[in-house]
Write a structure and sequence with these properties.
Layout: E1 17-18, H1 32-39, H2 52-62, E2 69-72, H3 74-86, E3 92-97, H4 101-109, E4 113-118, H5 129-135, E5 140-146, H6 158-170, E6 174-178, H7 188-191, E7 203-208, H8 209-212, E8 221-225, H9 227-236, H10 244-256, H11 258-281, E9 294-298, H12 306-315, E10 318-319, E11 321-322, E12 333-337, H13 341-360
Parallel strand pairs: 1-10, 3-4, 3-5, 5-6, 6-7
Antiparallel strand pairs: 2-8, 7-8, 9-12, 11-12
Amino acid sequence: MRRPLHGGDGWRIEKVEDFSANLNPYGPPPDIAQLLSEAASSLDHYPDDSSLVLKEAAADRHGLRVENIIPGAGSSELIRLFPEVFVERGDKVLMPRPTFSEYTFGCQFMGAQMVWSELPRANGFRCDLGQLLESLDEGFKAVYLCNPNNPTGMTCPRAAITELVREAERRNVLVFLDETLLELLPNEPELSCASLVEAQENLFIIRSLTKSFAIPGLRAGYGLGSKNMISCLEHGRQTWNLGHLEQAVAARLIRDRQDHVKRAAEVLAQERDKVHANLKRLGVPSLNRPDAFFFFQDVGAIGYDSPSFREAMRGAGALVRDCASFGSPFEQYVRFCVKTPEKDALLLHAWETVLEAGQEG
């Protein structure tokens, strides 16, 4: 097995703007250093193993109870925890493709048998929940969804996901739903399925502060589920999985800094439409308009594969995500996010430079 590859390594490279990681373009809230400093006064004792202060903040945020919340060292810990608790060797897991590679890695780590549901290219790789339902039977242990899907940037409506969750419950199938990128969409309230978890015993949702607050260096996230679902997961959770800094700062951000996230979501939606219109004007072929703030783009028609396009864009000052790691047939796909108007001007300039160089070549 090979560990999954990810974007977000622009910090290693000088004189380049990183569009490979889907983060809040305004960075962490301006007072993040103060929040960390205030939390640091309690580092002389063990952290609260239950992460109660984080649970209470997350429960209030979603109108749930603390019994519906499990803390995680980012969403990545919870992605691994779910199959560790529920998946046994030989269990069948239904997985859309392409989607976030950590899901598959975690399931295969536990010996799962992966069954792929290929997302239709003709529809911009939008997830066909009807197709998932047709594939689902009582022989599956779990089905995975990412909303918006990473790397394709497409969303699924809450009504369709609700239908899938209820049908899966009738067939004794668990549903893993990733909403870690949803807060950076202005229509997050109408898409989130958080309100379903108390009634749906088979549904587990993950959330993270990494993207919405741009704090990937501070590992904090949480999962949502029924009381029984969370109880099962708590039995497998690592003791002291979140330090005191993560718990205290995460709780403050969830309670008091949502305006920072909402501002970013509004700007990202505007910038997505602007970047899409400008790329269309530049003549980028096979261009899809995503629902989210990041694009999944085929660069084969302009003479590149994923690695060569990444290097060409890097030379023009903009780093994009090479999506060849998602496997065939995505060797010619890249993913890139939008940011602020000033930074997106750099992105568009880099695209124009690379396109012109390709035409000259």
